[in-house]
Amino acid sequence: MASRQTWILVGVLVLGALALVAVAVVPLPQENVPRVSGQSPRDASLRRRTTKVDWSQVPIDRQRVYGYLKQICALGPRPSGSPGMQRQIALLQAHFQNLGAQVQQQSFVVRHPLDGTPVRMTNLLIRWHPERSSRVLLCAHYDTRPYPDRDPVDPRGTFLGANDGASGVAVLMELGHHLGKLKLRHGVDFVLFDGEEFVFRETDRYFLGSEHFARHYAQSRRKYRYRWGVLLDMVGDADLAIYQEANSMRTAATRRLTRSIWNTARRLGVREFVPRIGYEVRDDHLPLNEIARIPTCDVIDFHYPYWHTRQDVPEKCSPESLAKVAWVMLEWLKRLR
Ligand SMILES: [Zn+2]
């Protein structure tokens, strides 16, 4: 009897130890992960989907859009409140005004997460056909992370943010050449969010710019309404594969929106848009969906090995990837009813 009891005790202890190990291995719940969660499967058979495109038939200028990405990176790092961000604001303001858009700055001040000093944040609002009351929002963040914290060699080195920062901006700069001429029922606003990742520690807050924008939209008296929102983030990876993002498939409205974008890609033969969920990402679309109640989809390629490292540079992006995303967005806009 005694020995049997001992074995039962040993069994219970072993099971207990296994349960502890399991708890340690299971990923943290999503809300404890500041920006992203979910696995990054690197299934090579799924990723080699590069589409051959007859570029003479595509209205997007792939060298021009890639040139914009390089031009933004040449400004240097662009964290909130930095001289690089100031230079970027000046560049974008001139770019979009020259193309005929109305440009507004939406500024607000936050406390620096490390020393509490005031930091001025600026969302850039770029309006096409501002008189139209039914509107579509295309957005991206344009600040870059202060440090490449995931860099295996120098996590306090220089972070350029070619894909994570400049790629969405470059696509919008290219689309600016087409928006004035488009015959749409809707007005279109491009919004560039500041403070997406003004983050120095795990506990620092993300999405400062999009949250400010969403609150302002929800609380202000206005004559227009956003029907749809599309967020572009990390869309320049030379090895592009854009899966659907789980938070963008939560409600009937966002599912409809997400599927309409992927259907546009399929119609064009851009197979880099893979029509199934690949990851769950916390990003600027959450405040838009939850605070502003604008059905918003995150178009993001989260399988990017250089994410938050010093290797996130223009050479890891490609003209073709940027141009394919710009093309899908342009054709999606043309078909909007
Ligand atoms: Zn980032």
Report on this model:
With 337 residues, this protein is an alpha/beta fold. It has one domain: Aminopeptidase, CATH 3.40.630.10. It contains nine helices and nine strands. It has helices spanning 2-25, 44-47, 62-73, 83-98, 162-179, 208-219, 252-268, 285-290, 319-334, and strands at 36-37, 102-111, 118-128, 134-141, 187-193, 225-233, 242-245, 273-281, 296-300. The strands form two sheets. It has a six-stranded mixed sheet, with helices on both faces. A three-stranded mixed sheet has the order 1-8-7, with helices on one face. Helix 3 crosses helix 5 and helix 3 packs across helix 9. 46% of the residues are buried. The chain binds zinc ion. Zinc ion (ZN) is lined by residues 145, 164, 197, 308. Zinc ion binds at residues 145, 164, 197, 308.
